[in-house]
Amino acid sequence: MSKDMYDVMILGAGAAGLTAGIYSSRAKLNTLILNEGAVGGQMVLTHEIANYPGVENISGYALANIMKKQARDFGCAIKSNVKVSRYGFEGNVKEVELEDGRTFKAKTVIVAPGGRPRPLGIPGEDAFKGKGISYCATCDGDFFTGKELVVVGGGNSALEEAVSLTKYATKVTIVHQFDHFQAFAHAIKEAKENPKISFVMESELREVKGNENVESVVIENLKTGERSEMKTDGVFVFIGYLPNTESLQGTVPMNERGEIVVDPLMKTSIPGVFAAGDSITKRFRQVTTAVADGTIAALSAAEFIRTSEVS
Amino acid sequence: MKMLQTNLQEVETAADLQKLLEENENVMVCCGRMGPMCIPVYEVMEEIEDEYTNVKFAVMAFDSPEAGVIRNAPECRGFMGLPFTMYYKNGKVVKATSSIQNFKQVTNILDENFGKN
Fold first, then answer.
1. Residue B45: closest CA among chain A residues belongs to which residue?
2. Is B80 in Cβ contact with A234 (below 8 Å)?
3. Separation of alpha carbons A264 and B59, rounded Å
4. Residue A123 belongs to a domain
5. What is the pLDDT of residues A252-278, one digit of tens each?
6. ∠ CA A146-A149-A154 to the nearest 5 degrees?
7. What pLDDT does residue A2 have?
8. Hey, is A185 helix, strand or coil?
């Protein structure tokens, strides 16, 4: 079992975690990033980023790779695809243990686990993933050329992707739990004016059915409780994101949505523990806001180390 | 011409794929695009490439006409999500998956079909 000691340990390698790694390692702090998934987080899932200041057009994958290289070039260690089994954030020395038994210690921790697309969580969803259930219209839309689709959700992603799917599908039915949409007015207008799109409001999917591929969905009307079965060839799911904080429950303060509570300096209420990115309480989740969070968290962590050593 | 910006070997033709299968006992090929469902699988492959020395890892561009050898494979019948990921042993398909797969799903398939390295 190894016991490595760092100045800053960052949990997560999305835009926030990598930025914190860049700032922290450039400040000559011994920095480690531990990441449970692929480096880059949600950023690599973005086909094209056109509004990152100073960069006219770049894929999320390319931007993530540049950030990773910057962090490594400044001396930051990155260990990805690891699974944390235990967190120890109390006390002056923070500690995490991995499933493989390795233990890492640090003076400070920056928690930046990011988020993931929210799944439906209904029977049939896992079984038909890649066989009619999709979370990416750009990726899988052309498999549904000439077919009928259901889109689940009522935000910008759902309505915009429903419109884009009409390039392929003969009919798109949007199923949404409320009687109104949360999307911007222009996205609602475009969807409503599209003759291929119809709407089933105040309803939720309860099951996805089929044999080899998706063949139908069971829809429940939330007002009446009535269930009906509708034939469809595919289901596209756009119902928002979940913070990746389940394993952190009880270790850092969170709100009722599982988002980590921080102050403007990205401090949690635990001394030496900071948080940044899509998993914290905030209104806008963009690459730029995650980068800002990561910067602030790293500078706050550096200040914490400096003042702790002085006192 | 290479179409995928990864650090993995890119197979550009069906003949190259056949050669790869003939020269390697265990092969994993991820056939996709530079999209949100495919990139995480490439990342996992890049991460484990050095660890799984008994497996040859490669990618193939889904939109290349040459990728028809994977797109139209019987094991991919009914697949409606990118990427199509193929696992070959001695040239035969032992497993095929559709859509995004995480680290554990990929390594489980490798361990089950090719043995733990």
1. A38
2. yes
3. 43
4. no
5. 999 999 999 999 999 999 999 999 999
6. 140
7. 46
8. helix
User: What does the pLDDT look like over A117-172, one tens digit per residue?
Assistant: 889 999 999 999 999 999 888 889 999 999 999 999 999 889 999 999 999 999 99
Domain membership flag for residue A63: yes
Residues A140 and A232 in one domain: yes
| Total number of domains constituting chain A | 2
Residue among B45, B38, B48 nearest B3 (CA): B38
Residues A222 and A281 in one domain: no
Residue B90 DSSP class: T
CATH of the domain at A85: 3.50.50.60
Alpha-carbon distance of A227 to A230, in angstroms, equals 10
User: In CATH, what class is B9-114?
Assistant: alpha beta
| Domain ranges (residues) in chain B | 9-114
- A28 domain-assigned: yes
A144 contacts B80? CB cut-off 8 A: yes
Domain shared by A160 and A233, yes or no: yes
| Neighboring chain B residues of A44 at a CB cutoff of 8 Å | 36, 39-40, 43
Residues A71 and A145 in one domain: no
Of B37 and A207, the structure prediction assigns the larger pLDDT to: A207
Contact map slice: B 13-52 vs A, CB within 8 A: 33-40, 43-44, 47-48
Residues of B within 8 A of A131 (CB-CB) are 78-81, 98
Q: pLDDT tens digit string along A178-206?
A: 999 999 899 999 999 999 999 999 999 99
* Shared-domain flag, residues A111 and A12: yes
pLDDT for position B89: 97
Alpha-carbon distances of A56 from A40, A141, B97, rounded to whole Å: 19, 27, 35
Q: Do B39 and A129 touch (CB under 8 A)?
A: no
Q: How far is A104 from chain B (nearest CA, A)?
A: 20
Res A311: pLDDT: 58
Instruction: Report helix angle A185-193 to A156-165, nearest 10.
Output: 30
Question: What is the domain extent for residue A298?
Answer: 3-117+241-310
Cα separations (Å) of A39 from A21, A99, A113? 12, 19, 11
Annotated catalytic sites of A, by residue?
136, 139-140
- Coil, strand, or helix at residue A113? coil
B interface test, pick of A49, A68, A136 with most B CB neighbours within 10 Å: A136
Does residue A256 sit within a domain? yes
Same domain for A206 and A160?
yes
- Structural domain ending residue among the three candidates A198, A214, A237: A237
Are residues B79 and A139, on separate chains, in Cβ contact within 8 Å? no
